[in-house]
């Protein structure tokens, strides 16, 4: 088994590039390196500037690579497809020219990836994590979204050799058990992979262990999160929107929440998972002063759990 661990800018509260409180991208990369990460995601579209020489210089100095870029946008509406394809071009032409992540043996699709997430629907966001209440897409809307995802995936692969991985996300139209099952039926693995997120699965009333095992042959990439159980119960009771829940601290460092990562580590060993895992801890960017400490705690926990050889920790 060969697993590489990476971080993500959302650990510093970077989810919306228009948020005025975001920390500078250079600080995020610097602190990710200090915490022991050797890879990091690009973050939301437009956060890190599309300046290849400048970003390459920073990454090289910090011994970091970019593991993935992300489309976090409305995948449903027909009028948004031109914008989505532009994002594919901008992101993929950028990440494929940055320092390359290490190739992993026995892994069919190598980094960097294009993580594809549906987002931007208030009627779903306000029901995040509540499958019994959230509205579903009509048959026509679902088919339209699937068509858009296929176009994104095929454009990324055919033009840039970048593998698209679909990420079920709380508050979007690909979130709950019925929707993930339908997605797996409608999009073959040769078109796009799957990026399961342990935190989003738990948040949306699914068992991460069960779903990792169930979808093992479709997994190209994984996200790790952990959930503070008391806060989770509180935000569910208060019917809080997803990122408002994150601002209240529903996400915590890996190993300090409700998700059993000892069992997940054992399962990944049994499945012989050979790929990348990115850990995340969404928060309000105004709380980013504790990000370095929290990220270091997540890295240390994963190291102690048995990812030490794969992490190649910086304390060597």
UniProtKB/TrEMBL annotation:
InterPro entries: IolE/XylAMocC-like, Xyl_isomerase-like_sf, Xyl_isomerase-like_TIM-brl. The keyword Hydrolase applies. Transmembrane segments: none annotated. One of its GO terms (molecular function) is endonuclease activity. It comes from the Bacteria. Residues 30-304 form the Xylose isomerase-like TIM barrel domain. Pfam families: AP_endonuc_2 (PF01261). Signal peptide: none annotated. Keywords: Endonuclease, Hydrolase, Nuclease. This is AP endonuclease. It comes from Bacillus australimaris.
